[in-house]
Amino acid sequence: MSTRSGPVGVFGGTFDPVHNGHLRSALELVELLQLDHLRLMPCAQPPHGKTPAVAAGHRAAMVELAVRDEPRLSCDARELGRSGASYTVDSLLELRGELGESASLCLVMGGDAVAHLDSWNRWEQLGELAHIVVLARPGWQLPESGVVADWLRQHAVPDAAELGLRPAGAVLVERLRQLPISSTEIRQMLAAGRSPRYLLPAPVLDYIQDNQLYL
Ligand code: ATP
Q1: 23 Cβ neighbours under 8 A, 6+ residues apart
Q2: Which is it for the CA torsion 38, 123, 142, 140, positive or negative?
Q3: pLDDT by residue (tens digit) across 7-16?
Q4: CA 198 → CA 36, 68, 181, 203, 206, distances in Å?
Q5: pLDDT tens track for 139-171
Q6: Ligand 1 test: best mutation among 16, 28, 182, most atoms within 8 Å of CB?
Q7: Is the pLDDT assigned to residue 1 strictly greater than 60?
Q8: Has residue 3 been placed in a domain?
Q9: How far is CA 9 from the centre of its chain?
Q10: Considering its fold, how many domains does the chain have in total?
């Protein structure tokens, strides 16, 4: 018998490095959606061409350090164990196998990502395997026309309560606090010899310095 108390969330990203923008969003989502827990899932090899600045092992280690004191967040490093491009759909298939058919599973993605959803591998299968939770960002809106727009409209639900009622297939847009932090800016600060302290957890910055990353 399952002891889970709510849907399970999975939040994919490059996390190069993980920062307080990611972490604050993750925690707010756990509370807003009443998730049992949320897994931050670093992508080993992004399918869309952008090569990460540091190896996947380092990025996962930093996520581990970032979440170690928050039991509702975890690092899911499953994509590091697969070769080739990291397809989210493969991770959801694995997770579905582990959690069972009836568990509610929520895939979290940024508004920037959802606009290009139809370029994702087997994109329509994502909604069969999980709910899609889209993080709205300022100056951003859902695509208004095209296949993705039609698909999002078809599956849209008005509030988070719907997510616990079925295992997959709903689309929910959530507006969270916006911390204007990006991994790109942190990498630039480090490369320029400036300190990104307080933009990311202290143990993550210590790890970056100990391993001389992003120089
Ligand atoms: P980069 O600057 O290297 O592109 P990033 O900071 O956008 O990186 P990613 O690892 O690419 O981080 O993002 C993972 C997910 O986190 C994406 O869905 C993205 O939309 C979201 N995200 C990134 N920064 C923030 C932030 N400051 N607040 C909330 N969500 C964020």
Answers
A1: 66, 67, 73, 201
A2: positive
A3: 999 999 999 9
A4: 28, 17, 11, 11, 12
A5: 777 888 899 999 999 999 999 999 999 999 999
A6: 182
A7: no
A8: no
A9: 9
A10: 1
Our answer on whether the CB atom of 199 is closer than 6 Å to any ligand 1 atom is no
Closest C-alpha to ligand 1, atom 20: 110
Task: Say if 44 falls within a structural domain.
Answer: yes
Do 135 and 171 touch, CB atoms closer than 8 A?
no
Tell me if 179 CB under 6 Å of ligand 1. yes
Any idea what the CATH number is for the domain that residue 169 is in?
3.40.50.620
21 lines ligand 1 (CB under 6 A): yes
CA of 144 to the centre of ligand 1 (A): 23
Which residues on neighbouring strands pair with residue 106, listed in sequence order? 9, 131
Domain that holds residue 203: 8-210
The answer to pTM > 0.90 is yes
Whether the CB of 88 sits within 6 Å of ligand 1: no
